[in-house]
Amino acid sequence: PVHPVTEGDHLTLRCLYQHTTSPNLRADFYKDGSLIQNQTTEMSITTVSKSHEGFYYCKHPERG
């Protein structure tokens, strides 16, 4: 995130695509280069802990 996150906080990551109007978009979410989940364009961590530290990013499953 743009801002630091504190342990215990709730965190929602969103993947946004340009030039797309489809309401049923999916996203591949990665942490430190490893795929962690494929779902809608939102990923939530209900209670952030030290184990969640890392670099997160998302990609469109077909377009990259």
Model description:
It is a single chain. The protein is mainly β and 64 residues long. The protein has one domain (11-59). The chain is 0% helix and 36% strand. It is built from no helices and five strands. It has strands at 11-14, 27-31, 34-39, 42-45, 56-59. The strands form two sheets. A three-stranded antiparallel sheet has the order 3-2-5, with no helix packed on it. Strands 1-4 form a two-stranded antiparallel sheet. The protein is elongated. The model has no long low-confidence stretch (mean pLDDT 84).
Could you write a compact summary of the structure shown?
With 64 residues, this protein is an all-beta fold.
Number-wise, the strands total: 5
SSE string: EEEEE
* Strand ordering within the main sheet: 3-2-5
CA radius of gyration is: 12 Å
What is the number of independent domains?
Answer: 1
Percent helix, as a range, is under 10%
Number of alpha- plus pi-helical segments: 0
Mean pLDDT: 84
Please summarize the sheet with the most strands: 3 strands, antiparallel
Class based on secondary structure composition and strand pairing: mainly beta
Span between N and C termini? 20 Å
Beta-strand content bin: 35-45%
Shape call: elongated
Q: Which parts are unreliable, with pLDDT below 50 for 5 consecutive residues or more?
A: none
Secondary structure layout:
Blueprint lengths: L10 E4 L12 E5 L2 E6 L2 E4 L10 E4 L5
Antiparallel strand pairs: 1-4, 2-3, 2-5
List keywords for this structure.
64 residues; mainly beta; 5 strands; 3-stranded antiparallel beta sheet; two-stranded antiparallel sheet; elongated; 0% helix
